[in-house]
Amino acid sequence: MDVGAYYLIQILNGVQYGFLLFLVASGLTLVFGIMGIVNLAHGAFYMIGAYLAFWLDAVTGNFFLALALGVPISVLLGLVVERIGFTHLYRRDHLYQVLFTFGLILVLGEVRSILWGNDVHGVDVPPLLSGSITLTDTQVYPVYRLFVSLACVVMAVALGGVIRYTRLGMMIRASASNREMVQVLGLDVNRLFMVVFGLGVGLAAFAGMIASPVNSLHPSMGDEILIVSFVVVVIGGVGSIVGAFWAAMLIGLADTFGAVFLPEAAGVVVYALMAMVLVWRPRGLFAG
Amino acid sequence: MSHRSPLLPLLFALVCIGIALYPLVGDAFYVRLAAKIVVLGILAMSLDLLVGFAGLVSMGHAAFSGAAAYVVAALINKAGVTDLPTLLAASLATAGVTALAIGWISVRTSGIYLIMITLALGQMVFFFFHDVSFWGGADGVNLDAKPVLAIAGIELIDLSDRTVFYYVALACLVGTFVLLSVVLQSPFGQVLRGVRINEGRTRALGHDVQRYKLAAFVLAGLIAGLAGFLEVARSGFVSPAHLGWHESATVLIVVILGGMGTLVGPVIGAFALVFLEDWAAELTDHWKLIVGLFVIAVVLFLPNGLVGPLARSGGREGLGKALARLWNAPARLFGRTPAKRRDDLPQESAGDA
Q1: Which of B123, B288, B303 has its CB closest to that of A106?
Q2: 3-state secondary structure of A223
Q3: CATH number for the B7-312 domain, one of 3.30.460, 3.90.580, 2.20.28, 1.10.3470?
Q4: pLDDT in tens, B237-265
Q5: Are A104 and A44 in contact (CB under 8 A)?
Q6: ipTM of this complex
Q7: Residue of B116, B345, B346 with shortest CB distance to A234
Q8: B123 contacts in A (CB within 8 Å)?
Q9: Residues A40/A26, Cβ–Cβ less than 8 Å
């Protein structure tokens, strides 16, 4: 019977989507937790990452080279935007941060449209990982999807390690709990903000890149991932990395199984879940 | 803040007279654009009640107007109802109930949580109309007919007539302004302002803050429902894009651009944004680039909006002084204010050393 294998595939897909969501949402929640900035343009950087992967893959002919070049390019773009725009917003109301980053979404979307057009694109799975694992006679699972999960786990562990064990991580944790005090102690908060923002953009762009062979590239991809990441952050508790992880898993699986059991209302499942969590705990599951 | 500037109602009256007289001289295309502006103005005014007065930044406002528009479309196309009062009542009820549900979950939080939660719940409404095939799918639906008010077989108001629609919409704009002005002057409105200025203190005074916030949400939702009804009657078309969060963000831009907490500001903002979009779309296919840069510029350089300088002139100082402030506004905008803002920033004092 293939039912077991079918559900195994759904679970693997759900977990893989969850890991991907975690990469995007952790950047979002990190930037908010440390800098106090609501970055609606986070999804736009995910989109930019995916299109960079598409473009660099075509130019260099090597997906991994595209990854290696694309992440620094996106981080650089993020840092330029941070210096030009975000520095003016740290002391401003969230309302203005939201609108500024909304404007940024429109600008980045049009830049993407000018550079790469509005067509749907796909990126080929790199030959090294193009195989698939046979589960039963009829069911196979692509190796690349496992690679995506693995890459996300590596990034998550690295992120956790940096935050918990390094000096930079110490500064990040300190700033998250009391920004003014850290500033008074003589830490260059300005530089820390740049690092954190660059890290957030890097995570979003990296997620967009490694997801590009699995999902097709389309103009609204950034918006889609942004809203789901918001749901993840809200459910997990704003600013909580651990919360983002468990919420991402929950949403990844809920979305995948929602599409299986309720295809007619698949889009609503995730939000209904969020609404239920919020009725129970208005500030999210892992709110401090 | 506590005194309403006498200039604002005056400005609103001037704007309305301008709108009323415009069809006599204007090109038909711009009259249609003006009708769009009036409807957007009503929607933006209802959001101003939440953002500008109660301090509740909602990023899901288009869900209320969009849901109302969808119900109107379904009643006309699937049930053949064209009776104006029935359709209007249905849109208000839909938007009101949606606002009650979203508000009930949202108002228990504030600040950034409220922004994120309203955005996500608004998207839930979006996906409900987008995914469930009954509503017409991703491409949206065209209306088979327009709402008509007829008593004893005599057509009194036929919204398919552009001129009739224009003046009905204008009357709704005036009605919304008057209603919101009265509400905001009432004790209810005073408490709402109190919530924005200091929620904790307002609660300490014995007011059930959550209930006031929820009531504001529902009132804003009802007016948004009116705007949704008018929008679908105007364009004869509704699609999921009408409820999406881009639409909600655009309405928020309109409020900020005009000047939040002023009621008339959002109407001015609607003028500015619709004309900008129209101009940019004629200029280039990539008109959103221009709109995006414009939004960024507004946030950075015009946080108080176009009527901000007017609004800040308090009722006590009189017309002359208020006009003098207005005269000095450009200098303040480009001279002192940005410099002052730069002083507040930590990195300038920290230096690059």
Answers
A1: B288
A2: helix
A3: 1.10.3470
A4: 999 989 989 999 999 999 999 988 889 99
A5: yes
A6: 0.86
A7: B116
A8: 227, 271
A9: no
